[in-house]
Amino acid sequence: MRSRYSEWDGTQDPLGPEVPAADLLEEMSEDLLSGAGAQGAMTRLFRRGMQGRFTGLDALRARLREARLHEQAGLNLQGPLEELRERLDQILERERSTLSFRAEDDARMREAFLDQLPPDVPGAIRELSEYRFVDPEAQREFDELMEHLREQVLGAYFRNLAEGLRNLSPEQLGRFRDMLAELNDLIEKRDRGEAVQEGFEAFMARYGDLFPDRPKTLDELLENMARRMAALSRLMASLGAEQRAELQALAEQVLQDMDLAFEVDRLGANLAAMFPEMPWGEPALAGGEDTLPFATTVDAMERLHDYEDLDRSMRGDYAGASLEDIDEEALRRTLGEEAVRDVRRLKQVERALEQAGLVTRRNGRLEITPKGARKLGERALVRVFERLRRDREGTHEVREAGGLAEPTGSTRPWQFGDSGQIAVQRTVFNAVVRGGGATPLRLAPSDFELVDAEQRTEAATALLLDLSFSMPLRGHFVHAKKMALALHALIEGRYPYDRLYMIGFSDYARRLQPQDLTAAGWERVYGTTMQHAFNLAGRLLAQHPRASRQVIIVTDGEPTAHLEGDEVFFSWPPVPKTIQLTLAEALKLSKAGVTLNVFMLEDSPGLVRFMERLARITAGRVFLMDDRELGEFVVRDYVARRER
């Protein structure tokens, strides 16, 4: 097998051909049929992912939590000061060692100066900035420390900029200062409502080399800068008062020496006003011992914000939450490219289902389409047949419809899996034409044709589904709906001239369409009105006087309500009038030649007594079923009755 790879350009289907939309819908089927609705089912799919196909948000959040805890466990907030103090102590130790071998008074005076240095790092560095070290190596190391300090301070404020700012000459420093000033002018110009895109493009033409990530808009550039400065403010807020003052003084001293303090303060104020939602000054927890440089510690603080921000957007527990809120760049920085691909797959799920015509949005709500409901039924039917271990004729997509057939006078090509009467003359003719009259005559599969037949309606079925609250409460809801969808798919695919009416009943009875079975929620009403369901079934089946007619009713309780005019009367336990009116409607069905098939999903005494009376007066069939076997039994029974 050969594979070809290409760079992602935003047009490819990240789900790939190995994840058909029908598979996605089937993955959602349990949640759809349990009452979660299309949006709820899709949200749950996002959370758990699809095994072997893509990772869900819950697994990504678990990885984020693990990465955040690992980051916090190794992060030492006081590391920047400790790192500078260690390097400074080594320099001073080298200088003192050299001075100790000299006898002149100058050496003693220098030792006294070093002994009087302030204990804090900013104060010591400030005093040493004018000091000339006697030890050449100590002087070199101090110069390197000052250069390192400038790089770290700039890197702490401006991520990705420090690499291009090493060994700043006065000219380079002036250019950097001009860049900050122009950027602040652009921000304030935009705040006044003036157009800035043209100015931003000119700005990038002059200073684009200072921004290796090449932002395309002013907002993108400023957001990146704001994230960095917010992370720095969190580091400062997380330190004790003494350490915070020391590190802040050190940063201000370096910026002041570089003549950047004013523009940096101005930029920080502008960014804080523009992005107030960022965690400015929010303390963070850390408990590590690693001694890391200033900019590297701010890097870690910025990653902590990425973890928190990504976790919040993946949790989605705020108004208007969407997968589009997940920052792919932040995800790439924290969990890598594979996590980004997983999120992109999740973002494509709804689009793939919509393009396949399985879901649609109506008035902002996601709904299953009739095609989607049919696909669910087909998948449920396949599962039923798989469990029944039927032969291929019983499981393939059958072209010959059910019912008595009359030849139409035409023929049709045979396809693998078809059954029916062979059109012998036409088949032999095809073989002769193909072989050019050669003998002996040999038949090929492509030669065969079947006698076409007109099908007639043979069966009409009313499927009555109990939708009362006890059905989901007792766990019967999903299995009953799967059975209904499978039966609908069976009749539509194999017996298209048969008729199926689906009727749901709780306090009232009403017609159902297959997609109604995927609607969100349950019916939290009191009453099981079989009387109304039987009455509606009788009126619908009366439209098919020549058909073999049957009622299939699935319930977990006896009738507890009946109609009095247009109003529902409910009573638990049921009153005799409810039982009498329900049995009377069932008897009307029986007298009209309708067969009753009752599937009980519970064996409560009241239900058993009622069903025994129902079977006795209607000569119907009553089955006590495990709901997990309901689909198999109903489908098998339907096929068996149709093939008699």
Describe the structure.
With 644 residues, the chain is an alpha/beta fold. It contains 24 helices and 14 strands. The strands form five sheets. The protein has a six-stranded mixed sheet, with helices on both faces. α7 packs parallel to α13 (294-315) and α8 (170-191) runs antiparallel to α9. The longest helix has 22 residues, at 79-100. The radius of gyration is 39 Å and the shape is elongated. It starts with 20 loop residues before the first helix and ends with a helix. Residues 1-5 and 390-404 have low confidence and may be disordered.
**Taking strands numbered 1, 2, ... along the chain, how are they ordered across the largest sheet?**
9-8-7-10-13-14
The secondary-structure class comes to alpha/beta
Q: Which regions contain 5 or more consecutive residues with pLDDT less than 50? A: 1-5, 390-404
Oligomer: single chain
Which band does the percent of strand residues land in? 5-15%
Main sheet makeup? 6 strands, mixed
Q: Could you tell me the radius of gyration in angstroms?
A: 39 Å
Task: Quickly count the helices.
Answer: 24
How would you state the average pLDDT, rounded?
Answer: 84
How many β strands by DSSP?
14
Into which percent range does the helicity of residues fall? Answer: 40-55%
Which overall shape is indicated by the principal axes computed on the Cα atoms?
A: elongated
N- and C-termini, Cα separation: 49 Å
